[in-house]
Amino acid sequence: GGGPSPSKGGGGSASKRASTIVAVSVSSQFRAQLAMLLQRISTTRPHYVRCLKPNDRNGPDQWHSRRVVNQLRCGGVLEAV
Q1: Tens of pLDDT along 8-42?
Q2: In a 3-state reduction of DSSP, which class is residue 1?
Q3: CA 3 to mean position of chain CA atoms
Q4: Residue from 53, 41, 50, 56 nearest 77 by CA
Q5: Rounded Cα distance, 14 and 22, in Å
Q6: Can you give the pLDDT at residue 25?
Q7: Secondary structure (3-state) at 24
Q8: pLDDT higher for 23 or 47?
Q9: What residues have CB less than 8 Å from 63, skipping those under 6 apart?
Q10: Rounded Cα distance, 17 and 10, in Å
Q11: Distance between CA atoms of residues 66 and 54, nearest Å
Q12: Whole-number Cα distances in Å, 63 to 4, 54, 69, 78
């Protein structure tokens, strides 16, 4: 037989090219979906509800001011006010 064997030569490079094509396709899909998401977000008027833990034990009628202020700082609330 005169032709190259399927297990020799070009078989490995073809599979490498195929995996690269799939990766580019996934990347393109991701970029397109991200662009659609960002467009949708830019047309909305989001409102956020921030939940605060008044104490670490979740006990009733216990308010630890330092804990609450720290949560507000970490959430960016104090900078926004």
Answers
A1: 555 555 556 566 655 568 888 999 999 999 999 88
A2: coil
A3: 49
A4: 50
A5: 12
A6: 80
A7: helix
A8: 47
A9: 54, 55
A10: 11
A11: 9
A12: 79, 5, 11, 18
Q: What is the Cα–Cα distance from 56 to 67, expressed in whole angstroms?
A: 8
Q: Distance of alpha carbon 42 from its chain centroid, rounded?
A: 17
Task: Give me 43's structure tokens.
Answer: 């047309």
Distance CA 29, CA 48 (A): 29
Q: How far is CA 76 from CA 6, 35, 47, 73, in A?
A: 61, 26, 14, 5
Six-digit token string for 60: 């009733």
Residue 46's pLDDT band (boundaries 50, 70, 90)?
Answer: confident
> What residue spans of the chain are helical by DSSP H?
11-42, 65-74, 77-80
Is the separation of the CB atoms in 55 and 67 below 8 Å? yes
